[in-house]
Specification:
Layout (H helix, E strand, L loop, with lengths): L1 H14 L24 H10 L7 E2 L14 E9 L2 H8 L13 E4 L5 H4 L8 E9 L3 E3 L15 H4 L9 H6 L4 E4 L6 E4 L5 E6 L2
Parallel strand pairs: 5-6
Antiparallel strand pairs: 1-8, 2-4, 3-7, 4-8, 6-7
Length: about 200
């Protein structure tokens, strides 16, 4: 209720060694701190703090706040190992080294699709992450993306030996692209190079 929210806000202010009524205007958002009103940002923070089962992890710096081009935000899915999953939720994604489009961070369009997508040398199973990703400007690529065309259409384990192991981000970013989309034949995928484009994420399975 309101009294509990105000009490939590006062506790938050005390931890910062300043009384609630001394918050400056920029910290108070659109509301006036002098009359005791809470900004929308403060109310959201209080709400999240009171939800022990809320498992979404907001990233420290989103693409829009870091000066990157903001574009199409989509909810996408990535599967990894049970040991790596919590580390990703805590510290963010790291770029892989190999894939149809070279080294990057790959996402499927659904949680179910990650089971047959996560088959590369950098892939694992056991922990599915749902992420909100700011894709910026997307380059649509053919099924084999930046890999050799001869790799496409052969068994996955054979294709792994010849798909792209280079970093293509610099080339695409110099052309004004922030992500790529391709469909290798088993469903669409998005790939980004910059982990700061992940706005938030949580475990779903």
């Amino acid at each position: 209720d309101t009294d509990e929210a105000l009490e939590l806000a006062q506790l938050r202010a005390t931890k910062q060694d300043k009384p609630l009524n001394d918050f400056d205007e920029s910290a108070a958002g659109n509301e006036s701190a002098a009359d005791g009103n809470l900004s929308q940002e403060d109310c959201l923070e209080i709400f999240l703090a009171a939800q022990p089962d809320y498992n979404e992890t907001p990233m420290l710096e989103s693409s829009s706040s870091s000066g990157h081009r903001s574009g199409h935000v989509r909810t996408l899915y990535h599967q990894t190992s049970r040991s790596a999953g919590p580390k990703i939720l805590h510290g963010g994604f790291r770029r892989g080294h190999v894939g149809w489009c070279g080294g990057g961070i790959y996402f499927a369009l659904s949680a179910g699709a990650t089971y047959h997508k996560a088959v590369g040398v950098d892939s694992a199973h056991g922990f599915i992450i749902e992420a909100k990703v700011d894709l910026g400007r997307t380059k649509h690529m053919p099924a084999y993306c930046t890999s050799s065309r001869g790799c496409w259409g052969i068994p996955v384990q054979s294709a792994i030996r010849c798909i792209d192991r280079s970093y293509q981000g610099g080339r695409f970013q110099s052309q004004g692209y922030d992500s790529v989309y391709f469909n290798p034949g088993d469903g669409g995928e998005y790939m980004i190079w910059d982990p700061r484009r992940v706005i938030s994420m949580r475990r779903v399975r």
